[in-house]
Amino acid sequence: MARSTDESTVARTSAPHCSLREATHAYLAVRPALISAHEQTGVELVYHRDDAQHTYRQSVPDLMATLGVLGRGLLPEPPGAVGALVIPMPYYRRFKPEGTPVDPATCGRIIRVRNRELLDDCARFRRDNPPSAGLPMPALMADPFRDAEEFAADHADRLGEVFALKWHPPAAERPVSAYVERGYLDLAAELGVPTVMHCAPKGQLGDLAEIAADAVPAALAAGARISLAHLGFDDPALPRILNTPGVYANLGPWQAVFEGTAADPGALDRDARLARLITACGPKLMLSLDSPWHLQHRDHGRVLGTDTVPALRRILGSLALSGTDPQALLAGNALPYLFGTS
Question: Which of 25, 108, 149, 231 has the fewest Cβ atoms nearer than 10 Å?
Answer without folding.
Answer: 149
